[in-house]
TrEMBL record:
<dbReference type="Pfam" id="PF13193">
    <property type="entry name" value="AMP-binding_C"/>
</dbReference>
<feature type="domain" description="AMP-dependent synthetase/ligase">
    <location>
        <begin position="201"/>
        <end position="348"/>
    </location>
</feature>
<dbReference type="GO" id="GO:0004467">
    <property type="term" value="F:long-chain fatty acid-CoA ligase activity"/>
</dbReference>
<dbReference type="Pfam" id="PF00501">
    <property type="entry name" value="AMP-binding"/>
</dbReference>
<feature type="domain" description="AMP-binding enzyme C-terminal">
    <location>
        <begin position="398"/>
        <end position="474"/>
    </location>
</feature>
<dbReference type="InterPro" id="IPR025110">
    <property type="entry name" value="AMP-bd_C"/>
</dbReference>
<feature type="domain" description="AMP-dependent synthetase/ligase">
    <location>
        <begin position="44"/>
        <end position="197"/>
    </location>
</feature>
<dbReference type="InterPro" id="IPR045851">
    <property type="entry name" value="AMP-bd_C_sf"/>
</dbReference>
<dbReference type="InterPro" id="IPR000873">
    <property type="entry name" value="AMP-dep_synth/lig_dom"/>
</dbReference>
<comment type="similarity">
    <text>Belongs to the ATP-dependent AMP-binding enzyme family.</text>
</comment>
<keyword id="KW-0576">Peroxisome</keyword>
<dbReference type="GO" id="GO:0005777">
    <property type="term" value="C:peroxisome"/>
</dbReference>
<dbReference type="GO" id="GO:0046949">
    <property type="term" value="P:fatty-acyl-CoA biosynthetic process"/>
</dbReference>
<dbReference type="InterPro" id="IPR042099">
    <property type="entry name" value="ANL_N_sf"/>
</dbReference>
<protein>
    <recommendedName>
        <fullName>AMP-dependent synthetase/ligase domain-containing protein</fullName>
    </recommendedName>
</protein>
Length: 496
């Protein structure tokens, strides 16, 4: 059972014995589970209409794993994946797990410099990619001196392809034992791969049918997929929830199949959540709090109030600390610190960054939050995003939540504009509905009525066509802040 130690001021999740041996590789576990579901459809690729059973997925992954082993790679090497969702990119990821070779996964939307930054650190021996990024990838790797073999997961005659990895072998093949036992991390992920791999694992472990697509996201397309495949479990960032809430197709789409909707990655707008839930009569809305460094969510639970992120999950320990690292109690806000049930080896090739957030077996998340008396965790914001206006602290998330109450607001990102006197002037970048007559002044007035003076938009409101985001839907606050600083400077210059 979950409990709170009032002396040490630590929240504990329920103790649970792992289903599999802790030293078992992820590949070995997934192979075992797939064999229990051989006849079931495991993957559906919507753009092509192809369906693969778990037997087809497993045998394809084993073929790829066998051929990877002929390349002379060991568990000290790295396999790169720079490909969008497809049947074969999924098979490559599974094959890497079976061989016990780490994966360095990046989104194909990365520019050449982004690819060079990541692969300059991880130095993959082979990379599987989409044909559309082959030239960008090969040029980028060549410029940083990496002699990396590249194989295309879709058709391309100018390079090696996935086909040579699909050849069947007469040799019996077994998933590899981890070279370093339970202390070795078989996978590390960059970009948006953490959430994708978690859902990938979960789907296989539950023998579920997973729908994949490489088409660009839109709320209308997501609604189409839910209705077409009678989806029961949905996992998205809160930004997708906001877009669903503003979609004209929300009311006309049959969403009765949904039973669980998991949201994780940023602040969840509660009013929009309630609106969307009205059209999902059988769904339970679940918040999950975690990060890539944890490899999963450390808290989860039904969303019953704004900023609520559920209770501590099995085998995790959480505490809240102040600026002096003192443990805090119920209803006291501070930095969230997490102790994982398994070791974390840190950032690949960056011990300094690891030491900055990892202390005595605990992760310093940089997130601010508090627990109530029932053990529910509430997220307030990011420690580094907390700003000051004339000596008073404010969190951008609080202001964003208020602005999102306006029905014509689709997206918002609040940043602080540097000011010699006031320190950080709250300013809002806003995306409004197409055809909306909502004005900047109306937004400012609404915030003025709802928030204290130090949380009002002294830096102004600025409409944008879109909010710059990461590939997994999180606002790029640094980029947005630079845009707002320039817009504020131009507006100030004109007024002078």
């Amino acid at each position: 059972m979950r409990y709170f130690d009032p002396v040490d001021k630590i929240w504990y999740g329920p103790k649970e014995t792992p289903l599999f041996h802790p030293d078992a590789s992820a590949g070995k576990v997934l192979e075992f589970v797939m064999k229990q579901h051989y006849c079931k459809v495991g993957l559906i690729c919507d753009p092509t209409g192809e369906e693969w059973t778990y037997e087809k997925l497993h045998k394809t992954a084993v073929n790829i794993a066998q051929n990877i082993s002929t390349k002379g790679l060991s568990q000290d090497d790295v396999i790169g994946i720079c490909a969008s969702n497809s049947l074969y990119s999924t098979s490559v990821a599974l094959a890497a797990l079976i061989t016990g070779i780490p994966i360095s996964s990046i989104d194909p939307s990365f520019d050449k410099e982004g690819i060079q930054h990541i692969y300059g650190i991880t130095k993959p021996k082979i990379v599987f990619c989409d044909g559309s990024v082959l030239n960008k990838l090969s040029e980028g790797l060549r410029e940083i001196g990496l002699q990396t073999e590249i194989f295309v997961v879709d058709s391309n005659e100018e390079s090696g392809t996935i086909d040579e990895f699909l050849k069947e072998s007469d040799e019996c093949f077994r998933s590899a034992h981890l070279k370093y036992g339970g202390d070795h991390t078989a996978i590390f992920v960059t970009s948006s791969g953490s959430t994708g791999l978690i859902t990938f694992f979960k789907a296989i472990l539950h023998g579920a049918k997973r729908v994949i697509t490489n088409k660009p996201f839109s709320a209308e397309y997501l609604l189409h997929l839910i209705e077409k495949y009678q989806v029961t479990i949905l996992v998205t960032p809160p930004t997708s929830l906001v877009l669903l809430g503003h979609s004209p197709k929300l009311q006309s789409t049959d969403l009765k199949s949904l039973t669980q909707y998991l949201l994780a990655g940023s602040v969840i707008p509660f009013d929009i959540l309630k609106k969307v839930k009205e059209y999902m009569p059988n769904v339970t809305m679940i918040a999950g709090y975690g990060c890539s460094e944890l490899g999963s969510c450390c808290t989860s639970g039904e969303i019953t109030a704004p900023n609520a992120n559920g209770h501590v999950r099995e085998n995790y320990e959480l505490k809240i600390i102040d600026e002096q690292s003192n443990n805090l109690g119920v209803w006291e806000t501070g930095e969230i610190v997490v102790k994982r049930p398994t070791p974390w080896l840190g950032y690949f090739g960056n011990d300094a960054a690891t030491d900055h957030i990892w202390s005595d077996g605990q992760l310093l998340t940089g997130d601010l939050g508090y627990f109530d008396e029932k053990g529910t965790l509430y997220i307030v914001g990011r420690k580094k995003y907390i700003m000051k206006y004339q000596g008073f602290q404010y969190s951008p998330n609080e202001i964003e939540q208020v602005i999102l109450e306006l029905s014509d607001v689709v997206e918002v990102c609040v940043c602080g504009i540097p000011d010699f006197i006031s320190i950080d002037l709250p300013a809002a970048a806003v995306v409004k509905k197409n055809g909306s007559s909502l004005s900047e002044n109306e937004i400012s007035e609404y915030v003025h009525r709802k928030m204290p003076v130090y949380k009002q938009l002294h830096g102004g409101v600025y409409f944008m066509d879109e909010i710059p985001k990461t590939v997994n839907g999180k606002s790029l606050r640094k980029v947005v802040k630079e845009k707002l600083i320039n817009l504020h400077a131009a507006r100030t210059f004109r007024s002078d």
